[in-house]
Design goal:
The protein is of the alpha/beta class. It contains 6 helices and 6 strands. Bound molecules: zinc ion. The site of zinc ion (ZN) has 3 residues, from helix 4.
Length: 168
């Protein structure tokens, strides 16, 4: 068990039934029901301390990530990989844009417009390539079905390994 004292957290009491633990910007926030006793709450935090520690480390590493390219270089990496993957898969997007988006690494709309998250500027070319491939494969399958993942694997056999980097 990790040293619980080391974990700094903020407790937010509200009208909820369960305890929620949130890691944001390298900090731990605990949402708890108003009626919970301090002892009960401490027990929950203690039980979850390994999980919290792990998430906290990931969150802090994410904050420390540095840009690996200039904006122009990043644009070129996206363009180059998109071009190659379009040729390989024969799946043609309508448009590929780079935007700073909040909740995803990339997206593909029904109109085949692909958006790649600008935050990927902090990731290796392999990771960027994976995100582009993922979105291009959505042109054929607008879901995360088995067929979808088989298609991704076909063009990037080690995608599971590459994908792991995106958690951090
Ligand atoms: Zn997807």
């Amino acid at each position: 068990m990790k040293n619980q004292e080391a974990i700094q957290y903020e407790i937010i009491y509200s009208k909820i039934k369960n305890v929620y633990i949130q890691i944001k910007d390298g900090k731990v926030f605990i949402k708890a029901p108003k009626r919970i006793s301090k002892k009960e709450l401490e027990k929950i935090i203690y039980q979850k301390s390994d999980w919290i520690q792990k998430r906290l480390e990931n969150s802090q590493q994410k904050q420390e990530r540095k840009k690996l390219y200039t904006e122009e270089q990043f644009k070129q990496v996206v363009e180059k990989n998109a071009k190659e993957l379009i040729q390989k898969t024969g799946l043609i997007p309508n448009k590929i844009r780079i935007r700073d988006i909040k909740y995803a690494w990339g997206s593909c709309s029904n109109n085949k417009n692909i958006t790649i998250n600008f935050k990927l500027i902090k990731y290796s070319e392999e990771v960027i390539r994976y995100v582009i491939l993922h979105e291009i494969c959505h042109i054929r399958y607008m879901n995360h079905s088995k067929d979808f993942w088989n298609l991704v694997r076909h063009y990037m056999p080690n995608y599971k390994q590459v994908k792991k980097e995106l958690i951090i």
